[in-house]
Amino acid sequence: MPSTAAREVPPLLLRDLAVEYRQREGVLRALTIDRLEIPPGTLCGISGPSGSGKTTLLHAAGGLLHPQAGEINWGEDDLARMGEAARDRWRRRMAGFVFQDFHLVPELTALDNVLLSVWFGSWSARRHTTRAAGLLREVGIPDPARRAGLLSRGEQQRVAIARALLHRPALILADEPTASLDAVTGAAVADLLVASARAVGATLLAVSHDAALLGRMDVVHRIDKGRLA
Ligand SMILES: Nc1ncnc2c1ncn2[C@@H]1O[C@H](COP(=O)(O)OP(=O)(O)OP(=O)(O)O)[C@@H](O)[C@H]1O
């Protein structure tokens, strides 16, 4: 299991948060959170009906969107007060993302998919190549030279998890990580995600409808109509 400790993991505190989307019919208030605190290293599930605001919450907590009001405090850093460039830098430093449909480039090898952020960033490729190959071995991908498009769906999600772990994130944000996998493969991916976060002490925020995954979280917050239920 990936075992190198994460950087220092800050607590998350959301306060008076409001996220709105401009839609054709007008402005939709998608999320209203008075207060939500998540201690460092917590495995936190986010559940709720379709359209209730789960992904919006994940994106707000991960600095992928700018809220209309409120605070998104990861320790000393308030993402709500940062511009887009600062949030980009914060994300690259702090967060690893895992998505339902993997977001891999099928023509590239497993290794190159894990290293994509290194190509686009200013990190040293050689140092990261060794770590990326090691992570792929640890998540159960023995052949890093295999093209991602030739891997099974479960293997592709393993590659995506290795990619999320590359920069030793303090936070792992996963959006329906098992939803496009069959039950057995999903359970194995859930095991890997939980074990990976635990091994490095990272905070895990996982949006999911998957009872097996949610059952492995320390806490599950349910969202209904944009509010904590
Ligand atoms: N970029 C956007 N522009 C406009 N409206 C949006 C946008 N993203 C989400 N919404 C709306 O905000 C509400 C919450 O969406 P969100 O994706 O957060 O819900 P969800 O609980 O993750 O849903 P699901 O389980 O179906 O993925 C929905 O009504 C959705 O239509």
TrEMBL record:
GO terms for cellular component: plasma membrane. Belongs to the ABC transporter superfamily. Residues 14-229 form the ABC transporter domain. One of its GO terms (molecular function) is ATP binding. Transmembrane segments: none annotated. Gene3D superfamilies: P-loop containing nucleotide triphosphate hydrolases. The keyword ATP-binding applies. Keywords: ATP-binding, Nucleotide-binding. The keyword Transcription regulation does not apply. This is ABC transporter ATP-binding protein.
